[in-house]
Amino acid sequence: MKVIILGAGSAYGCPMIFNSWRNANPQDERNYRTRPSIYVEIDGKKIVVDTGPEFREQINKNKITDIDAVLLTHPHYDHIAGLPELTRASVVLEHNIQVFANQETFADLEKSYGFMMKSIEGSILSWHKIPDKGEFDVCGVKVKTFQVPHHHWHCSAFRFQDMSYVTDWEDISPEGIDILQGTKTLLIECNNGLYPEKNGHSDLENVKKLAERISPQRVILTHLSARVDYKETSRRLPQNFELAYDGMEINI
Ligand SMILES: [Zn+2]
Ligand SMILES: [Zn+2]
Which residues, other chains included, contact 23 with Cβ-Cβ below 8 Å and sequence gap of 6+? Predict the structure, then answer.
């Protein structure tokens, strides 16, 4: 399995608008972060999780030439704003793109992007509702899912074989822990970095507590806000933890 971090940033990216860098050092290019998304190549299938506002640039910059499917975690702007690019993407690729989301996300998509659910300009998109919890099939690839609480909302977490992607979370249920057990590579939101805050997101202490329960070999922190400076934060991480950065490639 190959994973590319298309975006390691939080909802506001880094730098934020008006070149606001907060704690992040502008001289370190690993601090330049677009909105959160990953590309997963598994069993010959090419899957993107979340399509934020920089989706088109992320695909082009990382020289990705094809995708089979898109999985959506929840309907916040930083995860879905690039979704309309899919209408053109399926025309350029000349094949169908499968889109997967749970009922709660679908209800929101129908309000914001209902026009995409009809065929426009020859685009071929197929829409699939996935369960809140359990296993589903993405072009022959088995994916497990569960919900994590996030603000007033919930977010779908995904497990692909022994890699799990948990974004936008502030807590994990016992059911979630069960699904994560055995995960070797945990790719997980750590929006607040070293600064705990009750904002629907997570920080290093939360991630450490979770990692103690599931013992992954490698923990990669992503969805990082501008409070997280790559070098300064990396120095203070446990031995098997590291920070994600845009364009990072992970071979599993
Ligand atoms: Zn987010
Ligand atoms: Zn969110």
Answer: 226, 227, 228, 229, 232
Residue 121 CA to ligand 2 center (angstroms) comes to 31
CATH topology of domain 2-251: Metallo-beta-lactamase; Chain A (3.60.15)
C-alpha to C-alpha distances, 230 to 40, 105, 167, nearest whole angstrom? 23, 32, 19
User: 29: pLDDT confidence band, cut at 50, 70 and 90?
Assistant: very high
Residue type (1 letter), 212: E
Mean pLDDT computed over 149-177:
96
pLDDT at residue 117 in the model: 84
Cα 41 to middle of ligand 1, angstroms: 22
Counting ligands in written order, the one closest to the CA of 8 is: 1
User: In the chain, where are the structural domains located?
Assistant: 2-251
The bridge status of strand 45-49 relative to strand 37-42 is antiparallel
CA of 227 from ligand 1 middle (Å) equals: 15
Ligand 2 mean position to 115 CA, how many Å? 23
